[in-house]
Design goal:
Arc Repressor Mutant, subunit A, 2 domains, mainly alpha, about 0% strand
Length: about 200
């Protein structure tokens, strides 16, 4: 006899993975788009990388489904970063990385227009320049501000605004408490805004 809830408990892993992948695919795609170096992008596109991550998730099913404090997306994100490191080693002979350590948020391809422009658009949402800045001027201003920010500030801002992680997920990724993650975010946002306004006043 089948009892209520049995279907969910006995749901095949492949079906479960397909459902959670669909829910998180866009977020993982944004992560990969920001982290993939240009040299790797010339060999494989983001869609190809997504397929590799999906296959890797299938191999790490026990890790993804085990109970624990880590949110599911944080687990999938970790698999994605490890898969990216594996693909870099395979295609670029990159050095071995520790997936538990976050990679630098200013990647080697940080001068790419799409990456810098994304930060510039974010800057426009939290500041009100006295005069309209042309797109390239805003990019240059934002780049200068980012170089002044500590790594921890860039890290929490990128996790919240570009990967769209919740405060709980940020805390899990950074291995800090939710309260600490919230405080770090507020402080980072204030520093970014203050520095941006200082740069705008010089223009």
């Amino acid at each position: 006899m089948t009892h209520p809830g049995d279907e969910m408990t006995e749901r095949p892993d492949t079906l479960w993975l397909a459902e959670v992948w669909q829910e998180n695919r866009e977020r993982i795609a944004r992560l990969l788009s920001a982290r993939m170096p240009d040299a790797l992008l010339r060999r494989m596109g983001v869609d190809d990388m997504l397929q590799e991550v999906y296959l890797a998730c299938g191999r790490r099913m026990n890790f993804l489904r085990e109970s624990g404090e880590l949110p599911l997306y944080v687990k999938m994100r970790r698999v994605a970063l490890q898969t990216l490191a594996d693909m870099e080693r395979k295609h670029l002979a990159a050095g071995k990385r520790d997936v538990l350590k976050e990679v630098d948020l200013m990647p080697t391809n940080s001068d790419r227009t799409d990456y810098t422009d994304a930060w510039a658009q974010f800057a426009d949402t939290i500041s009100s320049p006295r005069t309209h800045l042309e797109r390239m001027e805003r990019q240059a201003t934002t780049r200068r501000v980012l170089q002044q920010l500590p790594k921890n500030d860039r890290e929490i801002l990128e996790l919240r605004h570009f990967e769209e992680l919740s405060n709980t997920e940020c805390a899990a990724v950074l291995e800090i408490t939710q309260k600490t993650a919230s405080i770090r975010y507020v402080r980072a946002l204030k520093r970014f805004r203050d520095l941006l306004l200082q740069e705008d006043e010089r223009l």
